């Protein structure tokens, strides 16, 4: 039954979870800020930079220092392309060139006194002085605006789209690549031909990385993995929120956020590593750039509507309508105009995005001041997301030297915050349901208590009858087992005795010596039958719990010493090394525990294990006894180096009358009762017994445990060993 304390506990857990979520968001936000600050203030802190088209890496250690961006001044030849390997290899193909900063577009670069626009074609060149070594190097080339061909030491190793000197001959394509670079022993000459007639900005807008092939491929796989992680999170969150909206259509925030996640998941396939080109090779570039801009424009009103539906009193309808009209209008421009034109209007969209960030932040701040549900978490996540988006916009305009992937991290933090807020909301709904259920339960408690009172006596009587019935069943089962076992194991020796006596009576025995031998056989059979009957009777009493155990407290170390010492002479007489090792698992000065046992009964159980080990261990072998006292139980293991137990016999070793020697009734075979008796004695003490491991011709380890009592003062502690020389 539910109680008030139970849902108070749930409320407490909810508050703890909320605080944990806020703390984790703050930690993630701090990490993002530190990462951004590092990239802003120390963008190339440890990397050599290119100067006048040359970068010196002769002191670079690829194994220790890893990959590096080839940033700095590259040689730049405007309106010139080299179309063949012969041209690249020719010394005469060295073009007169100026320098240009990479990464960065060529827009605004002054050539012959005229600033360049985004349209045109050019050749970039960089000479790299390499360190000594035979490392296989590779280049990680990002998306280039908008087509390129990469040459290294006169060999073409990568390209995207088709180069051309006119808009009709050039074919744009964004395709980040990893290319293995053919290297000379001391230098590498990189030439990149770039053409752009389709985008606002042209050139090498993102850094090119150089490193060993292993490191470059790993960095590429990590980037693709992060993109796939973010896309998967967006898809799952989008579909999940749409499912919630389908169940509860009043929650419009679920619809807006679900559509936002699905739309942004499409956008993420078009950014970074552009995974859509991996899934669909040859994906149309115009469609790709249209989807990229449309997803950015249409996701903005969905995001604003999501916040407005969460906090309607803190938002303004006319502002929501204004943002929707502007972004829908921009989307129409994207769908109608060519890419070269609408990409030039990107600044206007970015200004709208900045205004939307300010508006959303104001909603979150007012909601937090008024202590709305989940406002604190959303305020932190919106601050991180807004900061990361502004960083990406500044990077696109070459105003900061950070990275254009910051918004991906911010978006991941925002998705996590929304998941945390949703879990808190569902938790509160569950608490509300639990509270109503508790109240209903309390209304029925009166009737339930009366029913419990009237049925209590019946339950007690039923338990007493059940216990009596179980005892009678146990005794009956024990009796039937005893009778069946006696008839089974007494039949064969009785038949043998009868045959020997008839032989004597019929005067078939001629000599006194033969008659005496027959009488000795009869005597051994009678003795065996007497021992068998005694064992059966004792086992039946143990199973029926009719044996009186005289338990006395004794420390574990003293008990094992007494058990061990009684059988030293037997082991020595069989020529077997017999050793004891005692372990106290705990603090160095901690004392041995105490157990309450019937020492004689435990001797009987222990003797069965030892005599079995002696029986199946040849002379010159060993029997090792170990006792572990861990404070909660006493564990004893008996390990021998004998013949072991066959795998097919292992499940039955503790069954009565089971023995690997099929001739149980001969003079040398066992009766199969010893381990059964040991099992009953150990279990009567509250312990357990099992075969720990065994292997044919390599020995057997049998363990049993006895639970300990509270700790008592004893004088011994630690680990010690007693050895009996069995030779």
UniProtKB/TrEMBL annotation:
<dbReference type="Pfam" id="PF00512">
    <property type="entry name" value="HisKA"/>
</dbReference>
<dbReference type="Pfam" id="PF02518">
    <property type="entry name" value="HATPase_c"/>
</dbReference>
<protein>
    <recommendedName>
        <fullName>histidine kinase</fullName>
        <ecNumber>2.7.13.3</ecNumber>
    </recommendedName>
</protein>
<dbReference type="InterPro" id="IPR003594">
    <property type="entry name" value="HATPase_dom"/>
</dbReference>
<dbReference type="InterPro" id="IPR050351">
    <property type="entry name" value="BphY/WalK/GraS-like"/>
</dbReference>
<feature type="transmembrane region" description="Helical">
    <location>
        <begin position="254"/>
        <end position="281"/>
    </location>
</feature>
<keyword id="KW-0418">Kinase</keyword>
<keyword id="KW-0902">Two-component regulatory system</keyword>
<feature type="transmembrane region" description="Helical">
    <location>
        <begin position="228"/>
        <end position="247"/>
    </location>
</feature>
<dbReference type="InterPro" id="IPR011623">
    <property type="entry name" value="7TMR_DISM_rcpt_extracell_dom1"/>
</dbReference>
<dbReference type="InterPro" id="IPR003661">
    <property type="entry name" value="HisK_dim/P_dom"/>
</dbReference>
<dbReference type="InterPro" id="IPR005467">
    <property type="entry name" value="His_kinase_dom"/>
</dbReference>
<feature type="transmembrane region" description="Helical">
    <location>
        <begin position="293"/>
        <end position="311"/>
    </location>
</feature>
<feature type="domain" description="Histidine kinase">
    <location>
        <begin position="485"/>
        <end position="710"/>
    </location>
</feature>
<feature type="transmembrane region" description="Helical">
    <location>
        <begin position="347"/>
        <end position="369"/>
    </location>
</feature>
<dbReference type="Pfam" id="PF07695">
    <property type="entry name" value="7TMR-DISM_7TM"/>
</dbReference>
<feature type="transmembrane region" description="Helical">
    <location>
        <begin position="318"/>
        <end position="341"/>
    </location>
</feature>
<feature type="transmembrane region" description="Helical">
    <location>
        <begin position="376"/>
        <end position="396"/>
    </location>
</feature>
<keyword id="KW-0067">ATP-binding</keyword>
<keyword id="KW-0472">Membrane</keyword>
<keyword id="KW-0597">Phosphoprotein</keyword>
<keyword id="KW-1133">Transmembrane helix</keyword>
<keyword id="KW-0812">Transmembrane</keyword>
<keyword id="KW-0547">Nucleotide-binding</keyword>
<dbReference type="GO" id="GO:0016740">
    <property type="term" value="F:transferase activity"/>
</dbReference>
<keyword id="KW-0808">Transferase</keyword>
């Amino acid at each position: 039954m539910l109680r008030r304390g139970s849902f108070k506990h749930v409320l407490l857990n909810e508050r703890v979870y909320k605080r944990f979520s806020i703390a984790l968001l703050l930690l993630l936000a701090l990490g993002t800020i530190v990462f951004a600050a590092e990239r802003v203030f120390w963008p190339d802190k440890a990397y050599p930079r290119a100067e006048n088209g040359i970068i010196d890496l002769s002191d670079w250690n690829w194994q220790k220092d890893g990959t590096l961006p080839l940033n700095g001044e590259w040689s730049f030849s405007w309106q010139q392309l080299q179309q063949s390997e012969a041209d690249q290899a020719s010394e005469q193909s060295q073009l007169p060139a100026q320098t240009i900063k990479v990464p960065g577009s060529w827009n605004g670069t002054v050539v012959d006194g005229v600033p360049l626009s985004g349209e045109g074609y050019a050749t970039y060149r960089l000479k790299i002085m390499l360190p000594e070594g035979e490392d296989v190097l590779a280049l990680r080339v990002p998306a280039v605006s908008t087509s390129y061909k990469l040459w290294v030491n006169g060999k073409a190793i990568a390209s995207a789209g088709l180069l051309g000197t006119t808009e009709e001959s050039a074919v744009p394509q964004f395709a980040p690549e990893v290319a293995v670079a053919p290297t000379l022993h001391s230098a590498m000459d990189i030439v990149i031909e770039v053409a752009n007639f389709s985008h606002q900005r042209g050139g090498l807008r993102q850094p090119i990385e150089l490193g060993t092939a292993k490191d470059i491929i790993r960095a590429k796989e990590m980037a693709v993995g992060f993109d796939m992680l973010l896309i998967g999170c967006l898809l799952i969150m989008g579909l999940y929120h749409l499912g919630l909206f389908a169940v509860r259509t009043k929650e419009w925030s679920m619809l807006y956020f679900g559509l936002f996640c699905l739309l942004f998941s499409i956008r993420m396939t078009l950014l970074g590593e552009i995974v859509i080109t991996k899934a669909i090779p040859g994906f149309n570039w115009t469609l790709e750039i249209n989807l990229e801009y449309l997803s950015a424009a249409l996701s903005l009103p969905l995001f604003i509507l999501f916040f407005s539906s969460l906090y309607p009193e803190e938002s303004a309808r006319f502002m929501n309508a204004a943002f929707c009209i502007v972004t829908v209008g921009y989307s129409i421009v994207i769908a109608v105009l060519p890419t070269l034109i609408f990409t030039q209007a990107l600044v206007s969209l970015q200004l709208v995005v900045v205004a939307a960030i300010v508006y959303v932040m104001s909603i979150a701040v007012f909601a937090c001041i008024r202590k709305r549900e989940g406002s604190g978490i959303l305020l932190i996540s919106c601050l991180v997301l807004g900061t990361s988006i502004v960083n990406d916009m500044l990077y696109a305009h070459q105003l900061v030297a950070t990275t254009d992937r910051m918004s991906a991290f911010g978006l991941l933090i925002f998705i996590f915050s929304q998941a945390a807020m949703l879990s808190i909301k569902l938790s509160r709904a569950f608490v509300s349901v639990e509270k109503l259920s508790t109240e209903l339960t309390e209304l029925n408690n009166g009737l339930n208590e009366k029913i419990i009172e009237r049925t209590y006596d019946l339950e007690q009587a039923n338990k007493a009858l059940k216990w009596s019935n179980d005892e009678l069943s146990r005794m009956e089962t024990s009796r039937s087992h005893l009778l069946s076992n006696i008839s089974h194991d007494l039949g064969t020796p009785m038949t043998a005795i009868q045959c020997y006596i008839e032989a004597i009576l019929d005067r078939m025995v001629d000599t006194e010596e033969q008659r005496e031998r027959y009488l000795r056989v009869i005597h051994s059979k009678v003795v065996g039958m007497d021992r068998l009957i005694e064992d059966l009777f004792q086992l039946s009493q143990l199973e029926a719990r009719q044996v009186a155990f005289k338990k006395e407290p004794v420390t574990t170390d003293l008990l094992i010493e007494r058990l061990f010492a009684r059988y030293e002479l037997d082991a020595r007489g069989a020529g077997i090394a017999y050793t004891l090792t005692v372990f106290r698992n705990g603090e160095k000065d901690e004392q041995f525990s105490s157990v309450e046992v019937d020492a004689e009964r435990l001797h009987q159980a222990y003797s069965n294990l030892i005599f079995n080990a002696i029986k199946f261990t040849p002379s010159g072998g060993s029997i090792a006894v170990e006792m572990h006292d861990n404070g909660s139980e006493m564990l004893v293991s008996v390990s021998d180096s004998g013949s072991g137990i066959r795998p097919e016999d292992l499940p039955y070793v503790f069954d009565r009358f089971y023995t690997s020697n099929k001739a149980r009734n001969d003079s040398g075979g066992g009766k199969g009762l010893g381990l059964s008796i040991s099992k009953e004695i150990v279990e009567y003490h509250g312990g357990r017994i099992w075969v720990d491991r065994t292997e044919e011709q390599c020995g057997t380890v049998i363990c049993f445990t006895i639970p300990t009592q509270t700790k008592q003062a004893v004088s011994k502690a630690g680990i010690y060993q007693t050895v009996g020389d069995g030779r």
